[in-house]
Amino acid sequence: MANVVVVGAQWGDEGKGKIVDWLSERADVIARFQGGHNAGHTLVIDGKVYKLHALPSGVVRGGKLSVIGNGVVLDPWHLLKEIETIRAQGVEITPETLMIAENTPLIMPYHGELDRAREEAASKGTKIGTTGRGIGPCYEDKVGRRAIRVADLADPATLEARVDRALQHHDPLRKGLGVEAIDRDGLVELLKEIAPKILEYAAPVWKVMNEKRKAGKRILFEGAQGALLDIDFGTYPFVTSSNVIAGQAATGVGIGPGAINYVLGIVKAYTTRVGEGPFPTELDDADGQRLGERGHEFGTTTGRKRRCGWFDAALVRQTCVTSGVTGISLTKLDVLDGFETLKICTGYDLDGQVLDYLPTAADQQARCTPIYEEVPGWSESTEGARSWADLPANAIKYVRRIEELIQCPVAMLSTSPEREDTILVTDPFAD
Ligand code: IMP
């Protein structure tokens, strides 16, 4: 039985929500394995709009198990609010349909405060442009071995000891940033109050996942953000604080890497990025403006305007390799309708040398200029196309050229936010 990992193959916002929803209908288990409520997935089902940040997309479909794995960082207050909102939309969420790994680190209020205070204090060039949700500081506490985890909520003495350990680290940091000390007793009270509401969903996820796998259940691993924001392989330090690439699906829930049969990379037909950092094909002109307007390029989580640019085949070729992408889902092709010509970046010129990948060193990245190939556009509409026959010849040529350049086949093509407006070439769940 196939298990599928979905990863963003650019800087996030590739349109994963629709594809994940389409696949989650076919899956039995849907698991988040990294990131937190910095993510934003919009699902449109039967005309109803669901906005999810921390919850796996599977929750809105009945009869599925949704899992929050240990690779995630979880803001328990945010989660409880999100559950309430989704319940108010008529969705049932119970401990039978939602499980949270007991070893998941919790995002505390001081993580968000630190994230925002640092960003405010940062000068131009060092600002990351984070979502301000406390993601980075929580992952720092995880590897610093001072995180408060879901299982700690069960025992008041352990919980208080964990809080004290965390405060030993955070209070001096806050002092340096001019932020007042944490109200220790107030925080302990807040945690005790939410403990039973979170513990209801706590489970040994690694065990459950392996049992499901053995029972032949189909598992969908739902990635958030995009591979170019990966802590190791992204445009460091302008990245998020988790591993985003497909290998994280295994460690992020506690399953062996052999459980993964198919990696679907979600790729937008052009490029966008929110936040700071290098973006070789960024457009500051009317074409960039047009991509942003036609593509409604505003962040789901922060509402920030996304930076827009031409398709960068060199970067996607790179992320397809680091995530071992089996096939891609190409999204938002219709946004390119009406451009007379389109540009695709095939590599970079670095001081007169041609590179087929983006180098790691920041100074070299800054000196890289994109090498473009110009291809003809199309005047016809591709919006809503459901078969290759519905696409203009030049749109097909554009897609085929992308496949060649990134050395990875198109498995799905999405031509509008509607579920049915999809051309399916290969079903990732097919045995
Ligand atoms: P953080 O994840 O909040 O620490 O933000 C680090 C970087 O990742 C910033 O550039 C954010 O804009 C970016 N980022 C985080 N989550 C997302 C996402 O879901 N989509 C796109 N960019 C994201």
UniProtKB/TrEMBL annotation:
Pathway: Purine metabolism; AMP biosynthesis via de novo pathway; AMP from IMP: step 1/2. SUPFAM superfamilies: P-loop containing nucleoside triphosphate hydrolases (SSF52540). It is an enzyme of class 6 (ligase). GO terms for cellular component: cytoplasm. IMP binds at residues 13-16, 38-41, 131, 145, 225, 240, 304. It catalyses: IMP + L-aspartate + GTP = N(6)-(1,2-dicarboxyethyl)-AMP + GDP + phosphate + 2 H(+). GO terms for biological process: 'de novo' AMP biosynthetic process; IMP metabolic process. Substrate binds at residues 300-306. Binds 1 Mg(2+) ion per subunit. Keywords: Cytoplasm, GTP-binding, Ligase, Magnesium, Metal-binding, Nucleotide-binding, Purine biosynthesis. GTP binds at residues 12-18, 40-42, 306, 332-334, 414-416. The active site is at 13 (proton acceptor), 41 (proton donor), 142. Its cofactor is Mg(2+). Its EC number is 6.3.4.4. Signal peptide: none annotated. GO terms for molecular function: adenylosuccinate synthase activity; GTP binding; magnesium ion binding. InterPro entries: Adenylosuccin_syn_GTP-bd (IPR018220), Adenylosuccin_syn_Lys_AS (IPR033128), Adenylosuccinate_synth_dom1 (IPR042109), Adenylosuccinate_synth_dom2 (IPR042110), Adenylosuccinate_synth_dom3 (IPR042111), Adenylosuccinate_synthetase (IPR001114), P-loop_NTPase (IPR027417). Belongs to the adenylosuccinate synthetase family. HAMAP family: Adenylosucc_synth. Plays an important role in the de novo pathway of purine nucleotide biosynthesis. Catalyzes the first committed step in the biosynthesis of AMP from IMP. This is Adenylosuccinate synthetase. The gene is purA.
